[in-house]
DNA sequence: AGGTTAGTTAGGATCATGGCTAACCATTCA
DNA sequence: TGAATGGTTAGCCATGATCCTAACTAACCT
């Protein structure tokens, strides 16, 4: 649940590796190894991205045997959509005030 | 217009100072000085944030006399909304596939 | 002209990010 | 039991982000 900041969320999405992970997990859970496969990168480096996203509340992970399974935290991105929508509304309101 | 990357856009919004600038500009244009006022920060530091956002296509600026006026680039954030929406849809589609 | 205002340029300090290798642990399988 | 697999920890390094001060330029005001 945790109150994850927009800072953390936006920063997490600023990295293409991490967005790719989200794009993959949106289609269902996967183990670290599988997630890492397309990402020409050493496992420890990759794991850091996983940790960033877990810390940011974007994904959740748990150990199953020797694998670590990862899944989306589906509500995590809502604050971002909210903020963007808020800006859009403010902008449009401001447009409509521009009379004569 | 430019094809600004999600990388750049998300990264730009990862900083609270820059989000505050956007929040302010959503209500109408402003000069650098005015934007900087609430941000206990030296002007050169602040200017860098302005440059980051201009480079990212989020705002546009032009000199007017000795001031530099800044305004929103209203379509800049659309790719972000698009990406977020895309993820949401992928997630929901995946949910519905979970039968029996 | 001289001073004030707004911005700009240059250069430096500090810290976080994102990558690596090497070595280790825990689980599974033959 | 021993080897392979999947992950983890530790430590290193290069780069870039974010802040600063000092000094300069360009407009505007009296």
TrEMBL record, chains A, B:
Name listed for the protein in its UniProt record: Transcriptional regulator, ArsR family
UniProt-listed PROSITE patterns: HTH_ARSR_2
SMART domains to which the protein is assigned, alphabetical: HTH_ARSR
Recorded GO MF terms: DNA-binding transcription factor activity
Domain HTH arsR-type residue range list: 1-100
Native species: Litoreibacter albidus
A Pfam family: HTH_20
């Amino acid at each position: 649940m945790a109150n994850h900041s927009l800072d953390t969320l936006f920063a997490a999405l600023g990295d293409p590796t991490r967005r790719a992970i989200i794009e993959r997990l949106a289609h269902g859970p996967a183990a670290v190894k599988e997630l890492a496969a397309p990402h020409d990168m050493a496992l420890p480096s990759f794991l850091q991205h996983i940790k960033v996203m877990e810390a940011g509340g974007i994904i959740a992970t748990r150990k199953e045997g020797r694998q670590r399974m990862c899944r989306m935290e589906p509500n995590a991105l809502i604050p971002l959509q909210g903020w963007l929508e808020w800006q859009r509304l403010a902008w449009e309101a401001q447009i409509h005030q521009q009379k004569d």
